Amino acid sequence: MASDSDSDSDSDSGSYVSATPPRPSHHPSPTPPPLNSSVRVSSRPKPKPRPKPESTKKSTRNAPHHSEQTKRSKEKLRSSKAQNSTVSNPKPESESEAQSKPKSDPGSEGLFLSDPDNISIRICKPESSNSSSNFSSSFARLVKLRRPSFDPDLEFKADTTVPIEAQISAQNQVNSKQTKRFHPNLIQVEAPISKPFDQSKRPKLHDQGNFVRLNINGYGRSRKPCFRNGSRKYSASRGFRRRKWNSKKSNNGDQEDDLLGLDGIVDKQQGKSRLVKEVEEAVGAVREDLSEENLRNLLKLSHGFDLFREGQLQAIKNVIMGESTMLVLPTGGGKSLCYQLSALILPGVTLVVSPLLALMVDQLKKLPAVLPGALLSSNQTNEESLEILERLRSGEIKVLFVSPERFLNSEFLSAFDDDLTTSLVVIDEAHCISEWSHNFRPSYLRLRASLLRNKLNVKCILAMTATATSETLENIMKSLEISPNNLIQTSLIRENLQLSVSSSENRLKDLLVLLKTYPFGDMKSIIVYCKFQAETDMISKLLCDNYVKAKSYHSGLPAKERSHVQELFCANRIRVVVATVAFGMGLDKSDVQGVIHYSLPESLEEYIQETGRAGRDGRLSHCHLFVDTTTYYKIRSLSYSDGVDEYAISKLLGQIFSSDINLTGEIHSLVKEATARKLDIKEEALFTVLTMLEIGDEQYLQLLPQLNVTCLLSFHKTSPDLLADKDILIRSILNLSEKKGGFYVFDIPTVANTLHIQANEVLDQLKNLKISDEITYELKDQAYCFKLLKRPDDLFALSARLTKWLSQVEVCKVQKLDTMYKIVNFALRECKQECGCSASLHTYCIQKHITEYFSNKQMTIGDDFNIAGKQHSPFLHADLKSFLKSNASVKLTPRALARIMHGIPSPTFPSSTWARNYFWGRYVETDFQVVMEAARIELMNFIKKGTEEN
């Protein structure tokens, strides 16, 4: 905040002539009236003297000596006063008016003049030498702010007792020779009136302290504002004016500012050093005595918190004692603090496995300053990754964030040798390990205790999640070899959340009404969750058209735009974010007041996670859900999109275990897009099958990092034959490549197998040749790579087991959606409105069923609550026959035919091609299993009929 000395008050003792009241800065300064005998002079009582500031040391600076020109001006004024001695006294003022007038120094006599605009002018005598003590205080700041109002001929005697002020005074004498501008509210006696000072060029004063705003928009002179962290940045021209004004303002006193800035930096560095030292002492105390008092002291120093939340203290103690732990805390319950504080205490490295890059970046930013961290991602170059691993070995990094796919990288695993101590592995979002969870990820399946302990020499594992059923927790702890005694679980129910449900036939209209009525109408931060990306864009536009500040957020947006939307929301620049499930993980905003589910969540776990983003500050918050039957049927239909037929699994296994593939440790690959289109299996399902072949009861293969396996190579400086004589890699490429369109096209795993090297070594050599301008190349066809270890004895039995397992995962996913729909429908139709439940508010009813669900208790909804959809349709078989007849040349399976009838796209039957078909999505409200069974019957009849005709 600017001090009083920074203001433009005209009652300052340094202004010996001033006008009152001051004119507004945005009006040009009028020319002052001439000082002649026609001016009416009035006298007024002397104001009360201003108390002198207390000072323990008198200034040695003498009062300024006025020039002859100033003396002549005073004689003129005395003469004018004598000629106008007959003027009557002014009208007495009230006490309040007298207090509002600016005060002058003791002993000053004032003459009050009147101009044609009826503006009073007070002319004061210069101060006597007795007030030199007041005048010399804060001289450097006075010179800097009031320099334009001083007479250029005034001379000041330097104060030799204060070296810094002497330098400033000497600099002032040099600058005083330059042309000066005068403030419009200050009158220079018998001096030429210069152009009024443009007050609009002054920067605005704020109470946030001094800061610098940079123009990093790159839009030239455009005045497009850009918000970042609550601050506003302007165009380059505005920034230039600010810099120009600041440079003029700081001509004098810059040495003093530099000195103060240097002192500030030194103080900051010393403060940080003291903090590091205090944290090290606290860590040593915890290692000696693992008491709650020592842990709380370390928590206060490193994170600034006084107390632990429920479950945190016990989890930290378990980890420090080397006991693997399963931690279940609600969303926003402080899971990250458990591994951060443990990483400070434990020696060696803490490895954090996280499913999303955005989540890793957010967690890395939140690490305390005393805890160095880094992350490895696929966006980094090979050199950057190697540099991070080198820093890891040297001990510069304590916490490393990685994705689960990183464990396929041999270079990464080799970094964790005997010399590198890995004290703790943290698995965030650990429910992804279980195939029975709501968010199963195949890459998490590989995170078994055997891999972590054998490859990384891990001593302790901390698994963390916010939502997991009892069955899911048992599966996780079995995979990670965590004792049931080390399960730490708190209540998933947030007491400060009000849960409401309503049935809607026009959700857009109801959403607008909800956002403009109590309680959502008074909220400043709201998240609206949708299922589809197109929905988020459409709804956000509709809200903006109805004067609701909103932005959309989904994975289809560029990363920079997603980050910008999140920053605007966290800074309260926008009121509503309309988002898919991609928004919210790692969101650091505790004052979200409301969550609205525009679409039905796919599971209770998802519902708990998303509603848990409201009310993290402990205040009452509201969560509303719109129930729409049509949307439920559509989401339920899409739940079958990942399913695989046994026929497709058999063909995939036949391709993997082909007789052409040997077991000598060679690298083999499956191109993602081509294989998915050929077998009509989604890429995620392909990776799931490969993962199960590696970590199942028997290990049939070893997965390798994914890479682009097809290379298009062209030569530039040296001819291919001459280069092949000097380089064995080029010789192998020429022998194994096919020339197409001027490029040498070859398969990277095939070349690597021929030279008995790894695929990444081939890429490194190609990169070196490209740097030397010998070649250029292009990589394409991303593929899953693996080494075959053994062949199955019975390929058909293995195919049947995999198909059954995938079907169970699919059924589990559909059942979770059905349970979610049953609970909200029960609240709408069957709730007896007890314990606070009302027409739409059903907090008690929903929370009761949530508790039953996560504890695997029998839910009180009842099995007769049938919502699975229509079990039959009189026109289904006829439509299937008609479709098969009109598409006789298309190779179809029962699942593919059922997907078309449900409007579910697949690699072989994309919506871009088949959505124009009359039967696309015609039976979305009929149960998928019913449609698939009917498709199987009609397909067999169609094939049988065609065989008989032939």
TrEMBL record:
Residues 1-117, 238-258 are annotated as: Disordered. Residues 1-11 have a biased composition (Acidic residues). SUPFAM superfamilies: P-loop containing nucleoside triphosphate hydrolases. It comes from Rhynchospora pubera. InterPro entries: DEAD/DEAH_box_helicase_dom, DNA/RNA_helicase_DEAH_CS, DNA_helicase_ATP-dep_RecQ, Helicase_ATP-bd, Helicase_C-like, P-loop_NTPase. GO terms for molecular function: 3'-5' DNA helicase activity; ATP binding; DNA binding; four-way junction helicase activity; hydrolase activity. Its EC number is 5.6.2.4. CDD domains: DEXHc_RecQ4-like, SF2_C_RecQ. It is found in: Nucleus. Residues 21-35 have a biased composition (Pro residues). GO terms for biological process: double-strand break repair via homologous recombination. The lineage of its organism: Eukaryota, Viridiplantae, Streptophyta, Embryophyta, Tracheophyta. This is DNA 3'-5' helicase. Keywords: ATP-binding, DNA-binding, Helicase, Hydrolase, Isomerase, Nucleotide-binding, Nucleus. It comes from the Eukaryota. GO terms for cellular component: chromosome; cytoplasm; nucleus. Signal peptide: none annotated. Residues 65-78, 92-106 have a biased composition (Basic and acidic residues).
